[in-house]
Amino acid sequence: MGKEADNKDMDRKKAVRVPAAGVHAGKQGNGVKQAAAVKQPNAVKQAGTAKHSNVKKAGKNRKKSKNIAKKSASVFSKITFKAAMYIIGAVLVVLISRSAFAFGEKIFSEEGMAEKGKGQEVVITIPADASTGEVASILKKNGLIESELVFKIQTMLYEAEIYSGTYTVNTEYSPEEIIEALRPKKEEK
User: Fold this and answer.
1) Measured between alpha carbons, how far is residue 161 from residues 145, 158, 164 in Å?
2) Coil, strand or helix at 1
3) How many C-beta atoms surround the C-beta of residue 137 within 10 A?
4) Residue (of 143, 137, 132) closest to 169 by Cα position
5) Which one, of 100, 116, 93, lies nearest residue 153 by Cα?
6) Strand, helix or coil for residue 168
């Protein structure tokens, strides 16, 4: 019985080992399957999470790109607006300067309405208590001056003293000569 008992013990041990190995292998197999099953959903979750995070990142990147585009468009429009304002300002300065120069030239121009040697004598009457504007209007109607406003400014610059009376003035006279002609003559002693 000794041998048989030993054989039975060995068979039991083998049986225990085999099932144990089978259980272990089964667990391992199931464990692998379970791990694979667990890993697979986790992998899917991780892949889904990765995709989700990639989508979030892509969305954030698009938002950043849109924000950058908006900011650059805003900066560009501000720069364009400033440049346009500077250009408009420069054009206005040039136009105003040209107009001021032309106006100044008219004020200090020494030319009469007619060319030298081709002028005509014109008799004008300045009424009593006539204003500088009224005198300028009379002179313009008679073709002696080009602009009433310019003549008013010239009378201030040349400190004109214009009195009422009848005067003979030539159309080739400069504004300064007209003002001089309209001043009362000083009596010689």
Assistant:
1) 17, 9, 10
2) coil
3) 15
4) 143
5) 100
6) strand
Helix (DSSP H) and strand (DSSP E) numbers for the chain: 4, 2
Q: What is the pTM of this model?
A: 0.51
Distance, CA of 142 to CA of 132 (rounded, Å): 16
Cβ burial 2-12 (10 Å sphere, 16+ → b, else e): eeeeeeeeeee
Structure tokens at 67: 């924000």
Structure tokens at 51: 């995709």
The tens digit of pLDDT for each residue in 160-174 reads: 888 889 999 999 988
Q: How far apart are CA 136 and CA 152, in angstroms?
A: 7
Separation in Å, CA 107 to CA 119, 131, 150: 20, 19, 6
**Taking a C-beta distance cutoff of 8 angstroms, is the pair 127, 182 a contact?**
no
C-alpha closest to that of 165 among 124, 120, 136: 124
The confidence band for 37, taking pLDDT boundaries of 50, 70 and 90, is: very low
Rg (CA), the chain: 55
